[in-house]
Fold this sequence. Notes:
Layout: H1 2-17, H2 36-63, H3 69-96, E1 98-100, E2 105-107, E3 121-122, E4 125-126, H4 127-149, H5 155-178, H6 198-216, H7 232-251, H8 259-287, H9 292-306, H10 315-339, H11 347-361, H12 368-378, H13 385-417, H14 424-429, H15 431-436
Antiparallel strand pairs: 1-2, 3-4
Helix pairs in contact: 2-3, 2-4, 2-7, 3-4, 3-5, 4-5, 4-6, 5-6, 5-13, 6-11, 6-13, 7-8, 7-9, 8-9, 8-10, 9-10, 9-11, 10-11, 11-13
Amino acid sequence: MPGKIISGFVLASGAIWSVPEIALAADPAANQVIDTGTTAWMLTSTALVLLMVPGLAMFYGGLVRTKNVLGTMMHSFVAMAIIGVLWTICGYSLAFGKNILGGFVGWSNDYFFLKGIDDTIINGVPEYVLAMFQGKFAIITPALISGALAERVYFRGYCVFISLWFLFIYCPLCHWVWASDGWLFNAGASGVIDLAGGLVIHVSAGVSALVAAIYLGPRNGYPKTAIQPNNLVMTLMGAGLLWVGWFGFNAGSTVHSGLDTARALTMTQISAASGAMTWLIIEAIIFKKATALGFVSGILAGLVVITPAAGVVQPYGAMILGAASSMLCYYALSVKPKLGYDDSLDCFGIHGVGSGLGVILLSFFIRDSWMTSAAEAAGPQGWTVMNQLMIQLMGIAVTAVFAGVVTFAICVIVEKTVKFRLDPEKEAVGLDFSLHGENGYGLTQL
């Protein structure tokens, strides 16, 4: 069966290669002198976003049991290899090439293996840098989903899952929202607002995580058996790396080094701080104490909610969004046991819920200068807050339905071919020893 899967990928690659060349529109800005300042910032942002992947691995790795720490961290790290290769071969083209298949996805032969961008400069930045920056987003998105699958999936099944998820969910969504001819990019008067991946990354990953968690079923013993984190110190350090990396995530998404960049970075900091403080206040009121796990949950709630909005809101809006996200995410996590699904590390409860809130609420906190520019660009058709809200809601609905339905299909395919859900005996032993033949701490597994 694995042989058939490999053959399928070979055939698919051949089919993609046979797509006729699509001429890219001539762009005078593509042939210009390199802007060294912007290029330096984009190189830095690319490194910062990649830093988030080991940060995520530490965050997730500290939250699982000792016997699963290596297996869980491998889920984040392996995405760097698998998605890194797929992005180079065809992902960049599928996401940012010109419309094919009625605009469902993109393609350009120049982007196949990145073979046609060796000398290309866009807005003063080598296109290699822009391709690698976007590639880091592609890497971390399926890695986020692994938090919902923690402690109960085959490594081979996970590898096939993220490959299919990247090709059939991430690339189309990325094209719709961020490509210049994407239909959500051009929806309404100003298009859907999603600076750094509220829809493309966090809502899609959150919804897919929920669907996969329900499909796989809960871990053995959940929720009757207490499942405690093995290393909250590592989780705290992972959260710190995520916070630092998020400046590249959001501010780098302006693809600029100026006022817009400063705005995005500032809003990111404010929202993260507001989210963390709000979660501490909630715990102080309810439990009369502050927990490290609660604090890092608040940080993430503040970061994910500002991800789509950092380019358009002002400081007071960022503070409100961070606080609102913490409150809603706290509620989402509190009702999870009652609903019965086992989203192990709360990918849906934090990323899906928090970022979805940001996609919607940003409409009410847009700065005046942005609204004025949008109204002028809209012309006779006009621009209003309510019109933008409708576009944002449409973006949420499309992303949730598309990601949810296709994720379910992918789960079925993976389970029926290479197996997805881990056997009970291997689950009891733990991922580290049963799948990788190693122990995370060199100690007897707990």
